[in-house]
Amino acid sequence: MKIKLGVIFGGTSVEHEISIISAVQAMQSIDQNKYDIVPIYIGKDRTWYTGKMLMDIDIYKDFEDLKRYATKVVLYKKDNSFVLQKLGLFKSVVEELDVVFPIVHGAGVEDGSLAGYLETVGIPFVGPHVLGAALGQDKVVMKQVFASEKLPIVDYTWFYDTEYLNDPKDILKNIKKIGYPVIVKPATLGSSVGITVVKDEKKIEEAIEDAISYDSKIVVEKLVDNLVEVNCSVVGNYDYQEASVLEEVMSTDEFLTYKDKYLGGSKTKTGGSKGMASTDRVIPARLSKDLTKDIQETSKKIFKVLGLSGICRIDFLIDKKANKFYINEPNTIPGSLSFYLWDPSGKPYPELLDEVITLAIKDYKIKSKKTTSFDTNILSNFGGLKGAKGVKGAVKGKLNS
Predict the structure, then answer these.
(1) Structural contact between residues 73 and 86, judged by C-beta atoms closer than 8 angstroms
(2) Which residues contact 396 (CB under 8 A, 6 or more apart)?
(3) pLDDT tens for each residue of 247-286
(4) CATH superfamily of the domain spanning 136-140+144-150+225-366
(5) Burial class, 132, CB count within 10 angstroms (exposed 0-12 / middle 13-18 / buried 19+)
(6) Each residue of 19-74: pLDDT tens digit?
(7) Is 78 exposed, middle or buried (0-12, 13-18, 19+ CB in 10 A)?
């Protein structure tokens, strides 16, 4: 009997279309002899849809047309099954699912929001759980975690939009202390959206205002000299990590832009982008064996420190002249799931996908054996607030303990 696999993608982030590309690529590569694929698309209006036509990239050329043919659904647990139920007057069950595979990018989905919902429902799923996903999305908190683990990061400062709008002087002074040139980033976005390189003070305010248009939390980093960008993918969980070969990413700018990542020269059969697979790259990266090994080992440590699971891609910045590397950021559910880094590592895409789905089911079974609640009900003999042990009194609706 085939495993019913729900593939979730879309969402409200600026990386919506990139998620669609990544998901369609994956659905075309998943072993359909082993898995019965159920596409689950989250529209920009947060409505969930299903239907086999969602496996075809062409249907996304017109989102309104898509909504007329796909079925609106909700995901929940019914009895001992996980189901997609049709919305509307006749709330029939459309599909039963065994496991889900979120292939989502950006805020509102990849940041732990979707993982939290799936954990609440209780369904097994591929990828990071809430904490790992949240840490991987917030560029400020992840740097604070990396610093505590003595992992290499560039000098940076950060602030909220209100702090800057109310009194920018101190913030601009802190940026000046870092030293120009700097790179200004929205703290919780991905795909290089809202990022600007600033070479001097004249352009810094414009760059900050652009970042603020995307996010309320901003990070400003020292730009690495003699920059070379390399990426490493990691597969595994808290107990096991495997690193891929490294890629050296060829950018047409001072950093890898949204255009470099997703609007490169490579195209699909339908004329659309191949996502991260369309980026110009050199595999393996042109680095020494020692530096390559150091980056791979650091990648595995990052994966473990953040408590990630499934497939991650970790991006690094190298000062080629100084032969030093710094962590740029982890991508907890990377574009194209980094399949192009695993083919050269001897792991074809269908095999990679099967591995992480199997890992998710295994982790679910292990977690199910842990004690997460008690059969006893301490409220069964509850005599009200006055009779509750550990509660000294209730005064004017407030509990005093």
Answers:
(1) yes
(2) none
(3) 999 875 655 554 554 455 444 443 455 655 657 899 999 9
(4) ATP-grasp fold, B domain (3.30.470.20)
(5) buried
(6) 999 999 999 999 999 999 999 999 999 999 999 999 999 999 988 888 888 999 99
(7) exposed
